[in-house]
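Everyone, carefully examine this protein record:
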Amino acid sequence: LTALKSRERLLDLAGGSGDLVRLFAKDVGADGELWLTDINPSMLQVGRDRLVNAGVLCPALLCDAEKLPFPADYFDVVTCAFGLRNMTHKDRALSEMQRVLRPGGRAIILEFSKVWRPVKPLYDAYSFNVLPLLGKYVANDEASYRYLAESIRMHPDQETLKTMMTEAGLANAEYFNLTGGVVALHRGFK
């Protein structure tokens, strides 16, 4: 679904940790181009440092996914993993993804989503009760873990996000549920 080819150009939005860039670095090879971006300077620094430590050298750019500073029709792939739900104007971010993709390019979005209905009560109990307690005792940060659960609940479901991608000009939008819909991988093409 997300295989990259040698020489492709990848833009990772809200890439903070650098995980996706590191994962795809071997695929694009020395002739490819990788860009790590995030709106949070602290997260961007963490990702850049992790990439350098892993031997992956690429630009790390502080930028807003809703106003990308890249030319139109430039990237082969735009990725966003667990970042779209935190964007204020998801429609603008999706339109920007579409704008910077070259014709035939693909947008790949990995995000928490709506779980399979029979699992929902257990998942909600875990998300709103157990997860914040773990955050409180393990990370001394209950609020961030409560926010995580709330932001997941407010994020569009799979079909709605698929429609939003289509409205942003991404063709053949589709999604693949992972772990019973806890996470979904969305893909669309320019």
